[in-house]
Each structure stands twice: as C-alpha cells, then as structure tokens.
Design brief:
The chain is an alpha/beta fold. 44% of the residues lie in helices and 17% in strands. The chain contains 11 helices and 9 strands. The protein has a 5-stranded parallel sheet, sandwiched between helices. It has a two-stranded antiparallel ribbon with strand order 3-4. The protein has a two-stranded antiparallel sheet with strand order 6-7. A hairpin with a 5-residue loop joins strand 6 and strand 7. Helix 8 runs antiparallel to helix 9 and helix 10 runs antiparallel to helix 11. The protein is elongated and about 70 Å long.
C-alpha cells in the first residue's frame, strides 16, 4: 500500500474531491483494486485537516457496525454508537470502502442517512433522530462487478453520490515514478516489471486471465529486487505464482510471457 506522503495525484483527483467537498456533494470512486483509492481518500482528509472515519464492507458487515447497538454495563442498558452515527454527529469525513460488497439491509440504512435530509432514525435507541452536523462529507469506493463478492448497487443509492471519480491504473511513466519512490536502483528492471504488469492487466480486462496485478505488485517487485533477488525469479514470485490458484494452464500462460521478457 502506498503511504500518504508518497501519493502522486496523476489525474487531478484532489481537485475533484475538493470541489465536491466545497459543494457539499458526496463522491463515489470507481476503479479496480490496488489503484490507490484508499490512499487517495486518506491523503485528502490529511490535507484538509478533517478527521476520517472509515469502514470496509464485506458480507460480515452488519447494521450495528454502522448505527450501533445496545450495551449492558453494571446492569444498566446503554447504546454504543456505530461509525455512521458517530461521523454524522461530529461532522467527520466518512469513508465507505467497497460499498458494493455490503448486504442489502446494510445498504438500506445507509440510503436513509445519505438522502438530502442527511438524517437517520435510530430504532435501536428508542427512535432517536440523528441529523448530520454541517460539513459531514462522505466518500465511497466500489470495485468493478467482475470482482468476487461485489454486486450492483441500487439506483437510488448510486444517486446519493452524484460526483463519480474514476481511478484506474496510471500510465507506465507515472507508475514508474510511484514505484521508484520505494527503490533506489534497478530502473531498467522496474520498467520491465511495470510493462509485464500492464500486459497482465490488459489480458485480465478481456478475461484472458483471471487476475490483474495492482500497484502493490509492481512496488513489491522493485523491493524484492533491492533485496538481491534475480529479476527472473522476482517476476515469477511476484507476478506468476498467484495464477496457480486457477490451475497450471493459467500459470503457464503467464510464465511464458515472463520467459519471453526476462529469459528462462
């Protein structure tokens, strides 16, 4: 994962986020895994000096994670607020990561809070009405529907995020700038690794391969070269071996590409 201080805003994403923040509009960031969506959000919050609350959605995410749940302490019943309610009350920035991995009941509670009224009724806490504090800002990310566990979002929920920002893999020259921040040498080999990653990404995009390597892999490739590993071996352990998950035929396709680029 890229660190905040090393983020390169190659497609003016900060400008879009800043204008959306000023206009009081929620943002949806769309793009494949490993393109820096989370890093972008964290860096934006840091630059704006906004407190960031975040939640990563999965099939295990429950309504209670968002709104809260009743508690029992010393015989007294209380209520522990969830991350959605907390951010609304405090006017924080709320980051909803991989929102299209959430279950329908969770999305329903989100939809209630994200409409123009920006309020939610806590049936879990005696019907308390929570209204968002001025400045509450929400950014969500979604992965393409080809990713395992993702689903199509309801149109009404999509409409809550009228600003849509596409974040894809950067051009090779920009990716080289990013990766070089993690490596002190091996420029020629790193360029080859980035070229390999893009070949595999393009193959995955047309469903010739099952997996598309992310920026994390090209950074890992540079780092493992710095540790002293040979280029051919580094390409295999970082880029090829993962394809064994889908069988030897899939692995051999990638291994043949690596052999053509790096030798045997």
């Amino acid at each position: 994962m890229l660190t905040e201080s090393l983020y390169i805003d190659w497609n003016n994403s900060f400008e879009v986020l800043d204008k959306a923040f000023t206009a009081d509009l929620f943002v949806l960031i769309i793009g494949p895994k490993g393109t820096g969506k989370t890093t972008l959000v964290r860096e934006f919050a840091a630059r704006k000096g906004i407190k960031l609350e975040s939640i990563n959605f999965s099939l295990r995410t429950r309504e209670s994670h968002l709104v809260g749940a009743k508690t029992m302490e010393n015989g007294a019943i209380g209520f522990e607020q969830g991350i959605l309610v907390k951010s609304m009350k405090e006017g924080d920035m709320l980051y909803l990561d991989e929102i299209n991995s959430a279950e329908a009941d969770v999305l329903l509670r989100l939809d209630e809070a994200l409409d123009d009224r920006r309020q939610i009724v806590l049936k879990e806490s005696g019907g308390e009405l929570i209204k968002a504090t001025k400045g509450w800002f929400v950014v969500a990310t979604i992965n393409p529907l080809s990713h395992v566990g993702t689903k199509e979002l309801p149109p009404q929920l999509l409409s809550r995020f009228p600003i849509r920002l596409r974040l894809d893999y950067p051009p090779e020259d920009i990716e080289f700038q990013i990766v070089k921040q993690y490596s002190s040498s091996h420029e020629k080999e790193i360029l080859q690794g980035i070229k390999l990653a893009n070949i595999l990404r393009q193959a995955a995009a047309v469903e010739e391969l099952y997996y598309s390597p992310s920026l994390r892999e090209t950074i890992a490739f540079a780092k493992i070269l710095d540790s002293g590993m040979k280029t051919r071996q580094a390409a295999e352990v970082v880029f090829a071996n993962i394809y064994l998950q889908w069988g030897s035929v899939e692995f051999q396709k990638v291994n043949d590409i690596i052999t053509s680029m790096f030798g045997s």
